Amino acid sequence: MATSSEDLIVKALQEYTTCDVSDALIKLKFRNGGFLSGLTMWSPQRQDGPTKIVGPAYTVEYAPLSDPRPKYPTHYIDSVPAGAVVFVSCPPKIPNAVYGGLMSTRAKASGAVGSVIDGRFRDVQEQRDLNYPIFARDVGTAPPAELLKVVAVNVPVKLQTDEQDMTINPGDYLIGDLNGVVVLPKELGEKAILLMKKQVEADSKMAVEIAKGMSFSEASKKFRL
Amino acid sequence: MATSSEDLIVKALQEYTTCDVSDALIKLKFRNGGFLSGLTMWSPQRQDGPTKIVGPAYTVEYAPLSDPRPKYPTHYIDSVPAGAVVFVSCPPKIPNAVYGGLMSTRAKASGAVGSVIDGRFRDVQEQRDLNYPIFARDVGTAPPAELLKVVAVNVPVKLQTDEQDMTINPGDYLIGDLNGVVVLPKELGEKAILLMKKQVEADSKMAVEIAKGMSFSEASKKFRL
Amino acid sequence: MATSSEDLIVKALQEYTTCDVSDALIKLKFRNGGFLSGLTMWSPQRQDGPTKIVGPAYTVEYAPLSDPRPKYPTHYIDSVPAGAVVFVSCPPKIPNAVYGGLMSTRAKASGAVGSVIDGRFRDVQEQRDLNYPIFARDVGTAPPAELLKVVAVNVPVKLQTDEQDMTINPGDYLIGDLNGVVVLPKELGEKAILLMKKQVEADSKMAVEIAKGMSFSEASKKFRL
């Protein structure tokens, strides 16, 4: 799946924050600027430090045992491509964790750059000892098999929150940092990158002048289009 | 708006925690001791360190684009008085952020002591680099203009949580620390201060005796009224 | 209440994480592996550091003032047994705190190992200065007496979340760490301990091989039963 244009976009995104990506997506009329609510940084630190992840999504769908689809025949964690961000989707209000330390050990060995769990994860200390980035809904302790099964891998999955209707497609760019997690649809990657450079330059100039005493309105008129 | 009695109350409040303020407000029959649920410290550290803010509220009301009121004609951040706490009110379940790093750069240049965002804020690292205190509901990445507009500044605003019915009036004292954010209505400022000194002395004596082995009941009878 | 078999189980549990306990409880068909959702570490650090607590539950039930039961006649905090974990149950959506610094001062003096508050607690800095472990739903600032009263001590209490139907009985083992809080029913203590040793050995071997490049599926087949 990895292509040279994908590589270039991932490289370019390293220069920007999730907020920069959202600013560009808002200009491209992509709703909520791609923000995925409820998913925050837990490892290597809890919402602290310089950690940032960027990569194409490798998606995993968990569903209740009552779901008519069969359990996925192999373990999804054994097929994560190098450079990918693992995205695990889990139904809401499940007390059990869907992701743990051994998953990250395997993902890291495969060259994944981080995991985003729309659900609970566990083994917090082990995740941090691995220095492996985890973004998730919340913590947990119990494994999921009494309630859930994996039903699909690398299919479009929905964010499981009642605040938003957002889809993560395999290969969409996932970007995570202190502010949360953003999805950048694959087809908008190049357009977004082109917008970001100008934005960030304008905002940097605004910050300098505002710190010196210029009003926000004046700085905005002067430096933003 | 700043008066010398206001200054004295702000100065006196520096000596006390949000819990001390709430204890006094409960005695004055002000419900929930003025606690504003859901608003926690994000900058300069996430619920850690000695940060505390105290100041009169400068309020800002965001509403959905469908709101009949027109957009406020100027940028609210250009009129924050020195010493104020900016309070930004945003409807619930909005994935977009209503406050960012450039707002804090401007507020800090104006001498504001901190910002309380009843909504999402963004640019977490920039906020921390500014060493500017932020209390908020949650993080975010996207700007708000696709969904919301500012409709009023320095008007009474409601806390946007389903747990409480609380109003923040312009000029009410806002106090924020590790425990959260408390509103002290302007007209109760002096009465509350008078109660706090006695409370804190009693509680300090109780702590000493309890640590030595006295029962809570005995210490309470001995030192509290 | 303390017995020598209880002491041995508490001692054995010191070797394991909350996740290890949940793994064993899932095998024993105890739902959600005993995980108690919504209760996370706040002191001595916010979800960081090596803090872990283990002990039999000493339970406290708060109810609305309208509850027909009378207020409990003495202060519950004066009767905490050495080695116990205090568990305070509070109805949902209460903005007021039900637990504060003086409670921990007293509990610590009695030899309690930590407190789990299914509700809001306050005096965050004081809790941390005491180096006393607190797990709770959230922070707060106001005392509870305008809304709530203690109605029972050392009775079975329900976890107050809409995600789960879980009961904590007096004497059940409570285990808390970075991943959250788990209840291990008293009668399952010995059986759970026997399962944990094997589990942890298998998982350690899996982690070593997976880090070297073995697939998760192969490692699981090789080391797990």
UniProtKB/TrEMBL annotation, chains A, B, C:
Family matches, as Pfam families: RraA-like
Ranges that cross the membrane: none
A GO term, aspect molecular function: metal ion binding
Keyword terms: Magnesium, Metal-binding
PANTHER family cross-referenced by the UniProt entry: 4-HYDROXY-4-METHYL-2-OXOGLUTARATE ALDOLASE, 4-HYDROXY-4-METHYL-2-OXOGLUTARATE ALDOLASE 3-RELATED
Needed co-factor(s): Mg(2+)
Listed Gene3D superfamilies: Ribonuclease E inhibitor RraA/RraA-like
Highest taxon in the source lineage: Eukaryota
InterPro entries: RraA/RraA-like (IPR005493), RraA/RraA-like_sf (IPR036704)
Record: residues binding substrate: 100-103, 122-123
Species for this entry: Podospora fimiseda
Protein name, UniProt field: RraA-like protein
